[in-house]
Amino acid sequence: MKVPYFSQFESRERVLDLISGKMNAEDDPLWQLSGAADPQEYARWSSHICGMACLKMLLAHEQGRVIPTLALMRPCREYGGYVVEEDGSIKGLIYRPFVTYINEQFGLLAEVKEQTPIEEIYDLLDQGYVYIASVHPAIRTPEVTPPRLGGHLVYVFGKNSERRELTFHNPSGHTAATQENVHLGLDDFSRFYAKRGVLIALSDRK
User: Fold this and answer.
1) The Peptidase C39-like domain covers which part of the protein (predicted)?
2) Which end of the chain has a smaller Cβ tally under 10 Å, C or N?
């Protein structure tokens, strides 16, 4: 089954302009598709909702439901998956409240993984699991060396055993090739991977 792709930015062909600041998120012509109340709400949240884009892909893949990213974010925030600090900064995605949220609202069985090598996840990907993995956003350009690990989430759903590669969708990929069905070897993936994420059982595994 083809896994649907969704960017965390509604205009997926303008991601490079949006992340570079060449284009303001308020000017994204498709902002309403996010479920935001106005362009300002979309602009405030679009750079923080890679996890909600991953959840949107998961729900479309697993349950055939397509829910706007901000419509997913709001109840997730109520569960504590996001925290808006007094200075207006946004903290999240926070994994444990997120796991409770997707279990109670969508019937998904999930667990937080910490200090987990990617090889351990790789071995589970053909056993009815998918993985929302914490990586550095520079994974969109795997030829570079990331300054640190983590800070971004991608939706890992497949593997190539012959090549020992992972297959994933990247919510902030800036070209079609870096957005969907990205293939990356375990060693290269590990250079960006923070050894944490959320492992989720698909329905045929539960």
Assistant:
1) 3-171
2) N
Q: Is the pLDDT of residue 205 over 60?
A: no
The CATH number of the domain covering residues in 12-201: 3.90.70.10
Tokens of 63: 């349950």
What residue segments make up the domains of the chain, in order of their start?
12-201
- Coil, helix or strand at residue 153: strand
Q: What is the pTM of this model?
A: 0.95
User: Strands 129-135 and 152-160: what pairing?
Assistant: antiparallel
| Sheet of 129-135, strand order | 109-114, 193-201, 129-135, 152-160, 165-169, 182-185
Say how far apart CA 25 and CA 39 lie, in whole Å. 8
Q: Which residues contact 88 (CB under 8 A, 6 or more apart)?
A: none
